[in-house]
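Input sequence (115 aa), recorded before submission:
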Amino acid sequence: MYDIVKIGDKDVPMLAMASVDIYYKNIFGIDPLTVQTKEDPPISEVITLFQQMGFVMAKFAETKSRKEMLKLNEESFIDWIEQFDRAELIKALPDIRAIYDGEKAPSAEEKKQAD
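Predicted structure, token format:
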């Protein structure tokens, strides 16, 4: 699934393929399915998961290269996340999750109509 997530004033392309879980585990040392399969995961773990998964999917959309993805590490994540305002990134997490789950991220207009 490919889509673009608006984080603040930035359009961030993201690509979710089956391999993003493997890249995530390689970068962060945690299987993302571990958090998702907990009966009642702490919200802090869910927020962290999708902030980090947003990074993985954004880098995959950018590089589309296994070799480049395998070079990424937690420092790469910090470099990437520092470009965003914290509140704007938090607002974008539902859209990041939707892409990860294989759903089209709703546009701001679609969100307004749903309210």
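Checked by second reader. The beta strands are 2-7, 10-15.
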